[in-house]
Amino acid sequence: MFKRGIATFTLDYGKCPKWLFERMVKLGREMARVIIAEYGPDEFVKRIADPVWFQALGTVLAFDWNASGLTTILTAALKEAIRGEERDLGIYICGGKGKTSLKTPEQISLFGARAELPQEKINSLEYNSRMAAKVDSSLVQDGFQIYHHSFFFSRNGVWAVVQQGMNEREVTARRYHWFSDTAKNLIMEPHSGIISDGQHTGLNMAAKESANTQKISTELVQGSYSTLLKDLKLLRKYSTPQSEVVAIGDKHNESVNLKLHDRDFKVLPVVTEDFAKSKYLQKILYEVSEIKPKNYEQLLSLKGVGPKTIRALALTAEVIYGAKASYEDPARYSFAHGGKDFVPYPVDRLTYDQTIQTMQKLVEKMKIGYSERNKIMDRII
Fold first, then answer.
1. By the number of CB atoms within 10 A of the CB, which of 60, 185, 227, 230 ranks highest?
2. Residue 3's pLDDT is what?
3. In a domain, 277, yes or no
């Protein structure tokens, strides 16, 4: 069970020294072998999906605990550590940072074939990977641009996603975790945890509170394109920019007050975008309206549907049809152990101690020197 809270780390632009990365690979290989021998490949994937356990593993491997580089370097180190041993260990790691993330589908297909998974299962893994990336870039519009996507899966088809976004203006990073057992609904609060720098305000179409907005958004593209375009033009007609500043991503956008049908609306600055004048958006909406997706997940999965399309439909659903979306930050419910100041709840000492004991047990079983083992134990404690 994942508890709630917030963790902080900075955006790291530096490079990991070669000497450190080589040691992380060596130690990561031993830890992966021990964990899988002790608990099995499915449990390894499950633990990767736990944001706190992932953070602890990175710290044990001696990377900066509070830097964004922990995500990218730890993933790269683990991927290199098991290279050539994937079939024996029963785990596979795909994707990575930047352009490497684009190779994720290809790598899933390759490793899936090596694991002798049915083609239907391989296709499902590829779909889950792609949808996780789409949800965190299009449904969760929190000001963080996804630049790292990694996909872990076992020979049994258990999977996890670890991806990270950056906010260059604030020089901060946010990490998103997914796990197959808890992501049964890919478009409704699917995360196993989100590690972030703090609370932001932004459109969150993956929240339960946005369910009705999802429904109306789908109905909008199931109807006629001409009616949808009229609704978008209606937004421009009744929008009046105000000077009030609200926090959304870069914290420097203006809010907008709308008056429509004798009702007052106060919505986030997505309204300042003139959706009705965007030729590309009109093209996408026309194509989607022709396809007429059966549900919101299918709508999101369509080629070309991105953040702007989602914002346009969400705003139309809210302002014209009264289906209010959520603007609550999903990262308010992310951390595992609680805080010493009782925010958002007291430290869960039992869970905390179990995490420490598990790490200690794994280190004791690794094939490393006595002095090196002691150094790692000191970092854990």
1. 60
2. 37
3. yes
